[in-house]
Amino acid sequence: xxxxxxxxxxxxxxxxxxxxxxxxxxxxxxxxxxxxxxxxxxxxxxxxxxxxxxxxxxxxxxxxxxxxxxxxxxxxxxxxxxxxxxxxxxxxxxxxxxxxxxxxxxxxxxxxxxxxxxxxxxxxxxxxxxxxxxxxxxxxxxxxxxxxxxxxxxxxxxxxxxxxxxxxxxxxxxxxxxxxxxxxxxxxxxxxxxxxxxxxxxxxxxxxxxxxxxxxxxxxxxxxxxxxxxxxxxxx
Length: 236
Prior knowledge:
Blueprint: H1 2-38, E1 43-46, E2 57-60, E3 69-70, E4 84-90, H2 98-111, E5 112-123, H3 125-130, H4 136-148, H5 158-167, H6 177-187, E6 190-195, H7 216-225, E7 226-232
Parallel strand pairs: 1-2, 1-4, 2-3, 4-5
Antiparallel strand pairs: 5-7, 6-7
Helix pairs in contact: 2-6, 4-7
């Protein structure tokens, strides 16, 4: 009986999601066509929390406005080959099982022009592994997570925060630099390198991260947890 009751309560969510998905499929072609026809430098952002960056084609699995195009990164991207100069993926790949993450990277490679660049950020597995050592910065991060997300982390301890990073917020797979570099190179990318949050040698990728919070402490902790990399599609 309880299972039936839970299913009945969940049905409206399923219906709403399917309606949004259908609506997303119907309207995204116009958004994509209008964007590509009006931007000499084409920039694709995968996933959005509702923030719309000027000059980018913003996509999301759950678009929150008419300016955001529906896109499921586990499905073939609705673009021809070699159409974008830049692709940005911020705190998305960790929400995908490994094989789906590899598929997303292969599609990013396909839709980038030769010489095009991808920028990707995700929680750093090396940082997560280091939490148990309880260095000063690790201790500050544990306290910050426990204070800001008490429902997900009931106790202020490295073990609680580590498990939170693996299993909450829909996280499915975490990468360190070596693992992410290998995944990008398998997809065909070259020149994989790490970057500081908000920093890039490419002006088009300066300050693009939006998961930096609203305070100096938020920004400091975001920088501490983030693995940010850039990679390129070869010219030939």
